[in-house]
Structures are given as C-alpha cells and as structure tokens.
Design a protein that fits this description.
The complex is a heterotrimer of chains A (544), B (232) and C (105). Chain B has 232 residues and is mainly α. Chain B contains seven helices and no strands. Chain C is 64% helix and 0% strand. Chain C has three helices and no strands.
Chain lengths: 544, 232, 105
Amino acid sequence: MATAAITAERETYLNSAYGLKSWLLTKDHKRIAVLYFITISIFFAIGGTFAGLIRLELLTPEGDLVSSETYNKLFTMHGVIMVFFFLIPSIPATLGNFFLPMMIGARDLAFPRINLLSWYLLIAGGAFAIFAMVAGGVDTGWTFYTPYSTSYSTTYVIATALGIFIAGFSSILTGLNFVVTVHRMRAPGMTWFRLPLFVWSHYATSLIQVLGTPVIAVTLFLVLCERLFHLGIFDPALGGDPVLFQHLFWFYSHPAVYIMVLPGMAVISEIVSTFSRKPVYGYAFVAFSSMAIAVIGFLVWGHHLFVSGQSLYAGLVFSFLSYFVAIPSAVKVFNWTATLYRGSISYDTPMLYAFGFIGLFTIGGLTGLFVASLGMDVHVTDTYFVIAHFHYVMVGGTIMAYLGGVHYWWPKMTGRMYPEGFAKLSALVIFIGFNLTFFPQFILGYLGMPRRYHEYSQEFQLLHVLSSAGASVLAVGYIMPAIYFLWSLRYGPVAGANPWGASGLEWRTPSPPPTHNFDRIPVVTFDAYDYSTVIPTEVNDVGH
Amino acid sequence: MDTSSTHLETGAAHEAETLALREQFDTEEQQRDAATLGMWVFLITEILFFGGAFLAYTIYRSSYPAVFGLASSSLNLPIGATNTCVLLLSSFTMVMAVRAGQLGQRKAIIIFLIITMFFGLAFLGIKAYEWTEKFEEHHVPALSNFFLEGTSLQGQAKIFFSLYFAMTGLHALHMVVGVGILLFIIWKTSQGTYSPEYYTPIDIAGLYWHFVDLVWIFLFPLFYLIDRHLPR
Amino acid sequence: MNQHGEPSHHVDSVRTYVGVLIALLIATIVTALVATLDLGPFNIIVALGIACVKMMLVVLFFMHVRYSTLLTRLVMIGGLMWLAILLLLSFVDFGTRGWIGVPGK
C-alpha cells in the first residue's frame, strides 16, 4: 500500500505506541476519545436493539411478541442505555474530548489522568447496568419514579441505579476537566471571543454537567437507601412525598436534555460555517445563546410535573419560564440559517446531517412549546406526542449532529476519507427512516395513544406499522456508516491535514494529529472562522 | 498534497515532565491555577450533591415542624457541639499543615496532618458512639422497633431520622475519604515529594477537608439546634 | 516565599489562624446555648446566621478565598446560586400547595 508508506513517515497519536496496554493506560485525550467512541458505539447498538424489539412488538395491536412485564423492561433499558450511556457521553466524551483541546491550541486536557478515570467510571457504571439487564432487567422506566422504584418493583433497580450513579461521576469529571481546560489551557492569543463556537457550547454543557449531575447522584443515593432500608423519604405511606423525588430527578434530567443537545449545536456551528465558507452569523449571539440555554435550562424542570400533583401555581411559573428556552434555541437556528445566506455552500455529507439537524431540531423544539404550555400538556402528557417530541430533539437533533460530526472529523481522527457516495446515501436513508419512524408518533399521541403500552386499539395500527417500518429503515441507515467507516480505515483515500478547507486550529495540524497535537503550540492571531488564513489540502487518492 | 510533512519539527521537543510541571502545561503557575480551579469546581459539585439532601430536609422540616422539633430535641446536643469543635480544631491544624507546606517545613507538615487525622478519627469515633445511642433508643428508621416517644406520627419521625442518618452518613463517608487522602499526603510528604514550589496536593487536600467541615457547620444547627427550645 | 505576589502563595500568620479558630469555637458554643432559649422565630435565624458567619470565616481564611482570584469566587458564588435555584424553585411548588383548596393542586 502506497498510502501506508506515507502515513508511516510521521509519528501520530495512533502509531506512537502499540498494544492493548498503550490504549488502556493512555493519558492522551485523543486515544481516550477513541476508547469512548468504541464504548458508546456498543451501547448504541444495545440500546438500538431494545428499540427494535419495542417497534417489533408494536406492529400488532395485541401483545403477542413479549409479555407486558418484558415490554416494561425493554423500554426501561432502552431509555437507560440511550440516555445515560450513549447520549450523555456521546458528543462531549468523543468529539469534545478529541477536539476541544486541539481547538484551543492545547497539548491535552488539564487533567489527563482524570480523563482516563472518567472513561473507566463509564465502563464500571455500564457494567452494573449490563449486569442488571442480563440478570433479569429493570422495569421502572428510565425515570425511576417513586414509590414504584423504591417499594414495589421486584426488578434490578439497585444495580441499574448504581450504574447510573457511577456513570454520573464520569460525566461530572469530564465536565470539570473541560471547564478547567477552557479557562486555563488556551493557546497564546486564543481569547474567549476567538474560541470556536464548538468550545463555547461544550463549555456551557460542562457547566450543566458539573451543576446538575450531583443532584441526580444524591437522588439515586436516597432511592438506594430507601429501597435497601425502607426509610420512607419518598413513601407517601409514612408522609414522604413522591413529588419531591420528581423535583430532584428533573432538576438534573431536564438540564440533561441540554447536556445532550448543546454539544450537537456545537457540531452544527462548525459544520455550517465550514461548508458555507463563512463565519457563523452573529458569533457573540450564538456563543451567549449556549450559555443562556445552560442557565435557563435549570429554571424549567417543573414542566415535567404538570400532572404529578405539583401545585397549580408552580405549574404556571414553570410553564412561563419554559418558553424562555425557545429564545436562545431560536437564535441558534436563525443564525445558522443566516450563515447560509450568500455562503459558498457545498453539500458534503456533514452538511447534509447539519441540514437534517436544523430541520428536525426545529420541529422538536417547536413541539416543545406545545408540551411546555400547561393546558396543552394535560392533553398530551404520557402520550406518543411526547415520545415523538423528545426523539426529534435527541435522535433528530443529537444523533444527527453526532453522525455529522463523526463524518466531518473522521479524516482528522483517522487520516482517511470515508466514501462520500455511500455516506450521502446513508444520510438520506437516516433522514427518511427517522421521519417515517417518529412523525406518525406525533399523530398517534395527539389521537390519544399512551406511551409505555404494549397493546393498543385497532385504530392505531396503521400509524404504528408506519413507525415500525421507519425504524427498520433507520436501522439500515445506522448500519451503513458502521460498515464504510471500518472499510475506510484501510482503504479510504488519505485525507491530508485539511480536506474541507476548515478554519479551526485542529485543521492546522497533520491528520492524524501527533501525540501532543501540535508540533509547536500555535500563536493565535485570527478570529474563529477566518477563512482568509486557510490553506485547504487535497485528498490524496493514491490508496483508492 | 499532504502539507503536514512541512510542519514537521524534530519530534516536538518536550522536556521531561516534573510533578510541578506536567507535560500538558506551559508554566508551573498555570498548573497550580488549573489544580485549584479544578478543586473548586469539584467542591461546587459537592455543594449540589449535599444540596439535594438539604432540599429534602428543608421540605420536610417545613411540612412537619412539630415532629421534626421533637426529634431534634432527642439528639444529644453536648455530643453534637463537641464534635463540631473537634472538626473545627481539625480544620485549624489542616490549615497549619498547608502553611507549613508553603514554608517547606516537612516535619511540621507531617505533625499537623497527623493531628488533623487524629481529630478526624475522633470525630468519626464520637459519631459512631452517637449512632450506637440511636440503636439503643430505637431511633433507627431501618429497624422494626423504631419508636420516637411523644408523638403518634411515627412516619414523620422516621423521615427525620432517615434524613439524619443519610446526611450524617454521607458526611461521615466524606470524612473517611478525607482521612484516606491525609494518609496519602503524609506518606508522600515523608518521601520528600513536596516543596515550597510544589505543595498543590496539600493545598487541594486542605480545600477538601475544609469543605467537609463546612457541611457539618450546617448539619449541626439544622439537625441539633432548630426548634430545640420548644416546650415539650 | 511570596516571590511575585502570586495569589496562591500568601502565607498568613499563625496568629490569624488561631484568632479564626477561637472565633469559630466561641460561635459554636454561643449557637448551642442560644438554641435552648426561646427567641420565637429568631431561633432559626440566629442558628443559620451563626452558621453562615462560620462558613465565611472558614472560606475566607482557611480556604484562602481572601487571596483567591475573581474566578474562584465566581465559581463559589455560582455553586451557592445554583443551590438557591434548587431550593427556591422547589418552594414555588411546596410553598403554594393548597392555596386553591383543591386536593393535589
């Protein structure tokens, strides 16, 4: 292979050391990012399998494939795995871990050993969760509402909660590392307002991880105590208040939505700018909108409790506050769109995902206004409308952005290009599959189909069949990248340092980057997205 | 073409890293600032970790004031106050150890840390004694013989003692971790790892220790003092 | 020690630390004694007020926030603010239960 000779000339983070030990004990943020990438891909496959089984069961109105108990376990484990072990670490721990230090011109994160520790914590937490699943599953729903989770469920609540508890520390430590890194590790000349918007969004995400995650930790700790020792803190029989659990749970879990979607927005800002070859319109607004989302995200959690016995006045306050999240979210969508205006747009795969994100996130966000409104929410609470809403944000938003980001930075991470044609096809398949899966669920929910039921009335079958068909298209769309990415590792064309002509510091160092990211720490004399300073490199096709 | 080859300097000359200057940092000051900031960020996660429990406490204290006042009064005030003083003394010796670290007085660091650890263990010992009392008084919510005299609302009393055990237990767990950290620092100090140029770990351990002290400064009035004056 | 006036290198005198310790111990004894007197609603205010004073002493002197950077202070204040958000917004619910006299609202 001619290409092998070219890449072997130079020491990169991939060939600086070999062997399992050099990976499992690495302190290099890029290698840790790769470890995360492999880990969360496995979790995604597991969570996706559960989703597939759920959709299979819902093909027919009768509960014929699995029993109701098994169905409860399926949707619980789908939620637990996807939320805590895929979506939360997805973009920050892989793309963020890999590129945040590079974008600010640092050799590594501030605390490389803590970075490795947080990966091991995710593995340890995941081991508990997987153990719970293998041993017999858990059926409380990913929300662990009390008193069912503390007093009545006979499934593996303790192991699962412990797993999430441990994985939470992984998330906290990643956030802590990012916060300190952004404050203390910026290269000379890299002022706050020269930071790529990717860094701003990740900084905001990290603040949420640091401020929110401890609360879910102590909440799960109390649930564990209550389950083990029958304490009664959330048990109405003794005077405890289950709604208190919901307050504590959603104080974290609502902002956690922004832990999932803000990094997606981070990726989209980079992609939209690169493939329009223009600076993001209204840089400062987009930067501050990330911070605003992080702050306002903490003031709205009560909208999950509208029908839970929360006081009506609290409902009014939380409903009112919830609308404010729409402002910074809309700022982002408008500014991305404005960036496109008169841009020199190219329709490479990452850009297709970015278009997908912008459209689907907008639908997800706008339906968020429906469920934030007190009166409307009473009608759609616990229906498929809510399911469709948050899947539009999390799958249509975060996973689209995640895949877009993986395509965008794949040449940087591996030094190889993926096959563009297949990639475009898979982006299209995913977009179609996604909408076919989840759009019918808006209608289902509005018509009154409740969530978490494995049987349903005859009249809902058509929409459920459409949704299940969409899920199988979506599955094909997700399997395709897995195949061509692996293929590209060996046979992909050699990428060069900057195949997209992008402007970030990560593109001004070779692909794949050397262990310390830069041969010499850059001195930054230009703003983010300054394309006048960019020399794009061409894709070297010799290996093709 | 791959322009990267033109970037290539000879292996990016990095000097061998030292404890005071790890390879990812440019200056010792940058490393020190990063460590301190990291510790403070960690401490705010701790604030919110205990914060969730404080919320539960506040809600139930305001919902069930009578039973909570009664239960508060059943706690052993002299022991609680003594333990508070023990912990404050340990914070004092801890800060003296950090001071010795700043001045590079290795012997003084070790002596002050050992005294700090002694106070920490004394706190845990007194706490253990107090918990044993609870077993004898049937004030342990996990046991079937739980009973608080003077009220018919045993469920609410149970919630008080649940929170008491959960929160003092979490605090004690932090103390145990703190003692472990002190042991590690004592060992490292005896090996001559620290100097006036590099004493960050002592500083950081001090921040942690003081924070654990701070939590107790609030647990003490909340559990032992409020509504103790009410006539029974 | 204090070579270039670096913030983390301030060395306080032993006298300062002893003074702070004595203040903390006195505050503890005072708060324990006051708790047995009937001050009506002021009992809780005194107890928490003294706790806050003790907190400030520990934070400013023992944790060296007196000399710390603006950022460290912001981090600390931010943490306390988020605790306040958790407590206050929860009380928007728990504090208004039963206002309209409909069970569960």
